[in-house]
């Protein structure tokens, strides 16, 4: 089935045509690891995971590359401000390298909890400094750069298509409107490729380069690493909508200038997750993490369900009420599947009627990843009076392979939990009887057996209860 995806470059839904038959190259801007990722950051990775699952399902061999920004991403998206890593290191009293590894590990843990598969290649900026230096050297040789105030700048006036994807009107943009004024720039849209002069002292991460000891600007890492792992021209580039006017605009300019060809065919951008109070911001500290949802008693998959319930190109305002709604919907789905598992006889091939449901689902997924419709498809097939339990389960498991809610695993776990609870209750019953019969040897034996399994028996005047220890 052909996939239609909304391409920011052109502002329209387009049919996906791969550059190479049967293959899809997918680059996703990864996290800046100076703090925990917030729940808004998890939206791009979740939808990119669905995109990857969909492409794989529709027959493409996906090469998914994601960077880890562990250097060079400053406090705002322009070239002003302080290196976020250094700021976090100072605040936490750790080295910048330790900060980066600590938050990178936390990021992988969050992905796992959300059932987001790891990229084929994940690449740290600090492991690719030479690739960035090579790309900057190419840009220099081709005449796209200048040195000013000790830093190497990309001269955007040399790249006539600058801002085309973002629909930037360069005439209308006023100097300093996007970023603070940098007197060293020839044009206000120019950006730093390599810093040797930082206005901040004690720059902890610096490398030798043809332009002197220093560190790369943020944008160059994505261009250098994507070209390295996906070649100079690839299919998809993804990220949040905030990256359109600056980060991705600058990435396009330097990549196309260096590589001398079109860089990316499809730009897939997600809209923002907002808090009721407005924008979530890591630098302002007003954000929720996956861990904070877990601490409130939610499962990370409740949040995945919430995300899938909205279209990725619409803004979504997070609220605890909406997370409650997602949780009760997901839990009810799991319970229904558990009931079907009890009823079901054997794994089934999809019959004609089930295939119609599957086709609809595929169409909704292929229609710019319409996950809310896909979820609705699952609910409507559950209500179908003609489809048997075997058919329903086969359909749901196939669909969930694309949505990633771990429904089969969750329902089986639920089943295990119920049977474990039943077993414990039966042993407690037996112990109560043993105590009535004054068979204290047996009652102690049961207590010890349960304790060995992590269950503590509590005798109260109202009866016997238990808890996990
Ligand atoms: P960062 O770690 O800040 O570089 O951001 C990682 C990804 O999250 C990028 O693709 C951002 O565009 C995206 N992003 C940041 N904030 C939000 C938000 N509130 N909602 C959705 N996506 C976001
Ligand atoms: Zn990027």
Relevant terms:
single chain; 469 residues; Rossmann fold; Isoleucyl-tRNA Synthetase, Domain 1; 5-stranded parallel beta sheet; 4-stranded antiparallel beta sheet; binds adenosine monophosphate
Number of domains: 3
Total beta strands: 16
Percent range for β-strand residues: 15-25%
Low-confidence regions: none
Q: Count every helix, treating DSSP H or I runs of 4 or more residues as helices.
A: 14
Give a written overview of the molecule:
With 469 residues, this protein is α/β, with parallel strands linked by helices. The protein folds into three domains: 4-270, HUPs (Rossmann fold), CATH 3.40.50.620; 290-405, Orthogonal Bundle (Isoleucyl-tRNA Synthetase, Domain 1); 422-468. Helices cover 45% and strands 16% of the residues. The protein is built from 14 helices and 16 strands. A five-stranded parallel sheet has the order 5-4-3-10-11, sandwiched between helices. A four-stranded antiparallel sheet has the order 6-7-8-9. The radius of gyration is 27 Å and the shape is globular. Adenosine monophosphate binds next to helix 1 and strand 10.
């Amino acid at each position: 089935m052909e996939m239609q995806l909304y391409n920011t470059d052109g502002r329209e839904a387009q049919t996906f045509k791969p550059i190479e038959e049967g293959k899809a190259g997918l680059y996703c801007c990864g996290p800046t690891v100076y703090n925990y990722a917030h729940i808004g950051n998890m939206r791009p990775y979740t939808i990119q995971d669905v995109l990857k699952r969909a492409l794989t399902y529709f027959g493409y061999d996906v090469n998914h590359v994601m960077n880890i920004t562990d250097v060079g991403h400053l406090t705002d998206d322009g070239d002003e401000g302080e290196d976020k890593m250094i700021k976090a290191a100072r605040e936490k009293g750790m080295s910048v390298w330790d900060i980066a590894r600590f938050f990178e590990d936390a990021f992988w843990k969050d992905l796992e909890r959300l059932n987001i598969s790891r990229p084929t290649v994940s690449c740290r900026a600090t492991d690719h400094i030479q690739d960035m230096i090579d790309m900057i050297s190419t840009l220099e040789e081709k005449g796209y750069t200048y040195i000013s105030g000790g830093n190497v700048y990309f001269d955007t006036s040399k790249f006539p298509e600058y801002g085309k994807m973002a629909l930037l009107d360069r005439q209308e943009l006023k100097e300093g409107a996007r970023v603070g004024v940098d007197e060293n720039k020839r044009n206000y849209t120019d950006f730093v490729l390599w810093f040797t002069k930082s206005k901040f002292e004690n720059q902890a991460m610096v490398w030798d380069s043809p332009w002197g000891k220093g560190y790369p600007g943020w944008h160059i890492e994505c261009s250098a690493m994507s070209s390295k792992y996906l070649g100079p021209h690839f299919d998809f580039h993804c990220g949040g909508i905030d990256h359109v006017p600056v980060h991705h605009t600058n990435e396009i300019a330097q990549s196309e200038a260096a590589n001398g060809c079109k860089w990316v065919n499809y730009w897939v951008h997600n809209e923002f997750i907002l808090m009721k109070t407005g924008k979530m911001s890591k630098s302002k500290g007003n954000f929720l993490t996956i861990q904070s949802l877990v601490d409130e008693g939610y499962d990370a998959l409740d949040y995945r369900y919430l995300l899938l319930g909205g279209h990725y190109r619409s803004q979504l305002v997070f609220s605890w009420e909406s997370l409650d709604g997602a949780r009760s919907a997901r839990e009810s789905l799991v319970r229904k599947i558990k009931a079907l598992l009890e009823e079901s006889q054997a794994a089934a091939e999809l019959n004609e009627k089930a295939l119609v449901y599957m086709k609809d689902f595929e169409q909704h997924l292929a229609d710019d990843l319409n996950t809310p419709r896909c979820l609705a498809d699952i609910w409507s097939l559950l209500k179908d009076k003609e489809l048997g339990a075997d058919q329903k389960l086969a359909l749901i498991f196939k669909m969930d392979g694309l949505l990633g809610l771990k429904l089969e695993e969750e329902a089986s776990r639920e089943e295990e939990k119920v049977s474990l609870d039943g077993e414990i209750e039966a042993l407690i019953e037996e112990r109560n009887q043993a105590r009535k019969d004054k068979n204290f040897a047996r009652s102690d034996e049961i207590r010890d057996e349960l304790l060995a399994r992590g269950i503590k028996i509590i005798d109260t005047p109202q009866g016997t209860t238990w808890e996990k220890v």
